[in-house]
Amino acid sequence: MYEKFSKRVSTVVEHARKIAREADQEYLGTEHVLVAIMREGSGVGAKVLSSFGVDEYRLKAEIDRLVRKSMEDTWVFGKLPGSPHLKSTVATAVRMAQELESKEVCTEHLLLAMLREEGSVAERALLAFGATYDKAHAKTQELISGD
Question: Which residue from 17, 25, 126, 144 lies 20 to 30 Å from 85 (Cα-Cα)?
Answer without folding.
Answer: 144
